[in-house]
Amino acid sequence: MKSENTGSQEAAMPRPRIHLSAAERTAAWRERTKHKRPPRKRDVAALAAVLCSEIRLAAMQGSAEALKVNHENDLEILRRLISHYSATPKPDNSST
User: Fold this and answer.
1) Fewer CB under 10 Å: which end of the chain, C or N?
2) Distances from the Cα of 61 to the Cαs of 43, 64, 81, in angstroms?
3) What is the distance, to the nearest Å, from the Cα of residue 80 to the centroid of all Cα atoms in its chain?
4) Average pLDDT by consecutive 10-residue portion of the chain (96 residues)?
5) pTM for the whole thing?
6) What is the rounded distance in angstroms from the CA atom of residue 18 to the CA atom of residue 14?
7) Helix/strand/coil (H, E, C) string of the chain?
């Protein structure tokens, strides 16, 4: 007759591995948490360059909105975009 264990003495079966290697586990973690990390500076710079190119192209085609913010310097375009779309009211200097 075999004696039954109550479970407290038994070795628990390890849970099956989801990832075969540490590299796979790290890659999965990066994929799951990528929305929490700030964007890379090089990605932001690349998007800013594309945005400035698109604004220049739209300005050459006559877009009124693009003409308001267009400039030959990318930083100035970005500054003008921020100013143009700012939610903070601009001070009115006409009363002085």
Assistant:
1) N
2) 27, 9, 18
3) 22
4) 56 83 90 89 96 97 95 96 86 59
5) 0.60
6) 12
7) CCCCCCCCCCCCCCCCCCCCCHHHHHHHHHHHHHHHCCCCHHHHHHHHHHHHHHHHHHHHCCCHHHHHHCCCCHHHHHHHHHHHCCCCCCCCCCCC
